[in-house]
């Protein structure tokens, strides 16, 4: 009932064109079709505002992964 979204990135040269939102929406649709309850991810600190806009919530304190500050985030897809 839970999956982890990993390594989502959009080339800086084409950011702010909705590509990231489309990628996340595709993953969320797939999750719903496959009866996934929750999507979790480790978001770089700089990406947190993007995921907050997509209705993800922060579920951890700040931590470092590969030397970069991250937060664990998740979104409940069902019930």
Judged by helices, strands and strand pairing, the structural class is alpha+beta
Largest sheet: 5 strands, mixed
Proportion of beta-strand residues: 25-35%
Radius of gyration equals 13 Å
Helix count? Answer: 2
Indicate the low-confidence ranges by residue numbers. none
Give the CA-CA distance, first to last residue: 12 Å
Q: Got a strand count?
A: 5
Q: Could you state the order of secondary-structure elements as H and E?
A: EHEHEEE
Fraction of helical residues: 25-40%
Mean pLDDT: 94
The gross shape turns out to be globular
At a glance:
This protein has 79 residues and is α+β, with helices and mostly antiparallel strands. It is built from two helices and five strands, in the order E-H-E-H-E-E-E.
Care to describe what's here?
- It is a single chain.
- The termini are close together.
- The chain has helices at residues 19-33, 48-53, and strands spanning 2-4, 38-44, 57-58, 63-65, 68-76.
- β1 (2-4), α1 (19-33) and β2 (38-44) form a beta-alpha-beta unit.
- The radius of gyration is 13 Å and the shape is globular.
- Strands 1, 2, 3, 4 and 5 form a 5-stranded mixed sheet that branches.
- The chain is of the alpha+beta class.
- The mean pLDDT is 94.
């Amino acid at each position: 009932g839970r999956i982890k979204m990993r390594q989502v990135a959009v080339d800086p040269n084409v950011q702010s064109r909705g590509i990231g939102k489309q990628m996340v929406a595709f993953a969320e649709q797939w999750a719903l079709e496959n009866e996934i309850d929750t999507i979790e991810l480790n978001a770089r600190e700089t990406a947190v505002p993007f995921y907050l806009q997509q209705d993800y919530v922060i579920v951890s304190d700040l931590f470092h992964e590969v030397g970069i500050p991250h937060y664990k985030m998740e979104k409940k897809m069902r019930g």
